[in-house]
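Notebook, p. 212. Picked up where the previous page left off. The plan for this session was modest: take the two constructs that came back from the sequencing core last week, fold each one, and keep the raw output in the notebook itself so nobody has to go hunting through shared drives later. Recording the first one now, exactly as returned: residue sequence, then the structure token string.
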Amino acid sequence: MTVVQAAEDMSLGFGIADMAYLLQLQDTQASITSAAMLRLGDEAKDAGLIRAGLSSLIARGLAKVAPDSAVSFDPRIDVVAYTVANAVRWTQLDLLQSAEVGDSVLQIESDKTRLLLQPRTMLTWFAVPQDAGVSPEAAGSYVIAQHLLEHPDGGVRIRTTGPAGSAELLVRRDEDHWVYAPLDGDVVGTQAIAADEAALAGALRELRATTGNAAHGE
């Protein structure tokens, strides 16, 4: 699967214990929503799992504990911890190869940072901090376009959640362009055509606008 990486590769893999530890570092509503979007329920509050997460980060050289018990982190960990605790928007891209087979990508955005998280097996994730020079819509349209070029008979379902609620969009490939339509429950709205990635990014921008202004000058 294609992901959009920053010029400097700061990608990192996280297990369920690692993520549970990071999610409890700041007790915010955004942390709760991030946990839900990552499909973590009671795991995010499990004391044993949280302790195991810190041990895992220390063992991997991603965290250090000072003699006064203060914990410091690798910069990549700081980015992930800040983003999940201060998020203002969550966008899930369900990348469908067919009715039975698919993958997904989760974009999480704070006021200062953006992450692209790819779920792996057994509740693990591959996290990629996004280049600040690439807009969230451009990053999303790139992932969508690449997926549909590789799987022209597939589709993408986008759900974005911002300050004013959630909205959904369906996208599919049709010859040399993309067709998209809003989704409200099980009701598919009027279809429109995006001739290129810029137009597709514009459709994502409009979708985000319906859920309120949040990060990065929306």
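Okay, moving on. Second construct, recorded in the same format:
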Amino acid sequence: MTAATAEEASTLVEEAFGLTPPRPEPPPPPGWHRFSLIHCPVDEYPRFQDPRYDALRACPPDGCEVREFGEYFSLRCVRPGATLLEAVGVLCAEIRAEHGLLMTDLGIEKLWEWSSDGTDGWGAEIVGQLLLMAAERGPKLGYSVDDLVRFLRTAAVD
């Protein structure tokens, strides 16, 4: 058996053990991307009810629903974009500009896993997770955004 996404694979495993799992959501329309975006800063542990999220709870960005991810504040979103990274980046910029929060996480726990399923799949979520972590952690070490971009341009294989 094969599956196109991690959610489908989990469903197949649960069914194989005789459980009745929830079925995965249907894919969003072409040009739209479904993802979770979490505020999980590296050096603090804000909880879901933290007052800094009040404005986002009252009026989440278009296409997003407020959710609790563990004990963290998160948004579950379906947003437009040419790629998943574009959709996530635009939303992160919107939240940073309107609420002063750098969203830091896509909820990927096993970063060492991999899927070469294109610019909109699970592999793209893993890359997005790593980039969000770098965007938050690099400046804490003294790196600028330009330093991070320069690193990617220098190290990346075309």
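Notes on construct two before I forget. The helical segments are 6-16, 54-58, 84-99, 122-140, 145-155.
Flagging for discussion at group meeting.
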